[in-house]
Target: Apple domain-containing protein
Amino acid sequence: LLINFNRQNKQCSLISQPMALNPNTYKETMSLRIKCSIQKPDMKPKPLQCFFPGHQIAGIFVPPLSRKTTDSIHCQKECLNEPQCTHFTYNDTNGACILMKNMTAHAVNSEFISGYKTCD
Model:
């Protein structure tokens, strides 16, 4: 890949092949070669810092008791959409998303990822 930065208009552009540069047209352009690498994607989303992998929380359930989501991030989004929710617990084994308010306790449990409504 080639990155071009035009000093006059302060814009960058990526091009996959070097283009023939006319020195008069592109005298205010700098080019930089970069290397990119592709890593095998992790199939599970990485928990955010306000998520607690391996912890199950308890509190007052916000109905319905259990929802199904694809991951803990979507479970947190369910919590965001529920005004009463303050915390959530996601079961990584069966996809159960449990929303709660007023957290009362927590336990170590490797099947769960728990977290707050927001990461503020």
Notes: DSSP finds one helix and seven strands in the chain. Helices lie at 72-80. Residues 2-33 form one domain.
